[in-house]
Amino acid sequence: MMKQLVSALFLSAVSVLPLAAQQTQKPVLHGRNWMAITGKPLAATAGAMIFQKGGNAVDAACAMLAATCTMWDTLSWGGETQALIYNPKTKKVIAINAMGVAPGGATVDFFKSKGYNFPPEFGPLAATTPGTPGGLLYMLASYGTLSLEQVLAPAMEMAAGYPIEAQAAGSIERGKSKIEQWPYSKKVFLTHPGEKREAPEAGEIFVQKDLLSTLQKMVASEKQALKQGKNRKQAIMAAYDRFYKGDIAREFVRGSQEQGGLITMDDLAKWKPLEEEPLMVNYKGIDVYKLQQWTQGPVMLQALNILENFDLKSMGYNSPKYIHTLYQAMNLAFADRDFYYGDSYAEPREPMKGLLSKAYAKQRAGLIQYNKNDPNIGPGDPYPFEGKKNPYIGLLKERGYDLDFTSRNFAPVHDMTSNLPDTAYMERLWLGTTSVEAADKEGWVVSMTPSGGWLPACIAGKTGVGMSQRMQSFVLDSALNPFNVLAPGKRPRVTLSPSMALKDGKLFLSSAVQGGDTQDQNLLQFFLNVTEFGMNVQQATEAANFNTNQLWLSLGGTKTADRQPKPGQILLNDNTSEEVRSELKKMGYTLSFGARTSGPVNAIYFDWKHGSLWGGSSNHGEDYGIGW
Fold this sequence. Notes:
By secondary structure, the chain is of the alpha+beta class. It is built from 24 helices and 19 strands.
């Protein structure tokens, strides 16, 4: 009772303090030389170890990625990696696309023949080709300084045995009914077979012999290449070839196919990570960078373009008017995401020039009703803003949209409700991953949102590598999104979405967050917390956010009803005042509440006045940072 009283008094006090003076549950991290932040304390320590060896931010980020994969921090080595990297030599932000693709046998007809409306959530049929190993090796070879052996050393030590934390151990126990179906997963995860608790206990030394062997093989290939006179980059890419074309690939494919998977040697050999130009918009003098439309990243850019038409600061942080305006702006952006985003390397080509134009955003902003939620928001028509005619007018008409895109009667009837219980729906909305943030004194910065192969994971043979589950983010019906229909060799449109921002040509903010469809909702609010309300980076990571449910879920069940939007539903922080609650109800919102609604966001702020780094590491869960 006393603890609850103190907590209530603290929250009450915080609510009346100026935003810039609010206390935080975790301290701001300060560093002069480097900053390493990620979802697990041990993984942040791995990044610190690499910095102490003289590595740069890319080396450290790769080490943290390897460690989080080894710890099953809602991802595995068979998942996917998305990254933004600031290169101080060119003074440009580059994007890394290490998203796997659908295997050759993955077709719409195949999944529909099995009764699916979306590809499955779990198991070998959910797997795209692994992207994380290739992404890590490409980033390290191209922009790192250390050897693969040095960067993988912490992960290999962990694979040999580390004390597993309660979060992962609990996930294994909760998911054991699925894990028991997959022989290689069962062998690795269920360390106490036949006992009441078959999963490891928190603090138990968790050993992954097969994964250790896989990592050792990759390092051995690097060493052999160096002995043969290859240079550093060539030696690291020799490890790449062994994973995607050699004995590791053969065992991965054999283990996948034995359990009913579709991935072939040809699928692995054809895949490769890609370096891309990121997308960018300018918000009030700040250049904000996101990955391309194979992610949901442009949602944040679209929302910023819309919000630039409003005086947000004058509304007040998390006032009813502020919450309403952001909610509506996000709904407009997500409606476009749900219909127009997809693999930028596959036909048809997405209308990104129109979607990101300021004129289109102004038109969309004009749809926001100032005094009530609009449950009928749907996709707009960006094509005229790039001088083209929309080829999907007929498809939109079939869905029941009003084709006068200045009106508000957009939503087809079947979009309006979901029969899924709220608890299951919210779990899918928030479905986690991890984030990695790294920066060094030379100016290298990495913002990363890796994911895939989460627990309960299906391990591919004796590789120790959990397969991705990202195939579920495809649609099987072009009426939902003609750009994101499953096809062999295609990337699904994913939720994974790191951010970076520059101001006056200099680094300003780098941030990333876990949480499925909420990622760009939380990153948007984090960014505005700093830019509009003057919060420091730690205050902004902890500040109470809200989430809209008025969108199609990107992850979840195989039935249409599992994914449908819930117009007007909003998640608010428990500390939201009665006055704000009352006003939002009058606007037509259905309210739900949570104790922590901030992300969790991890971020770095660049203090040019003092020549230092400020780190923000969420007070959610186990996110952790170290600076020096």
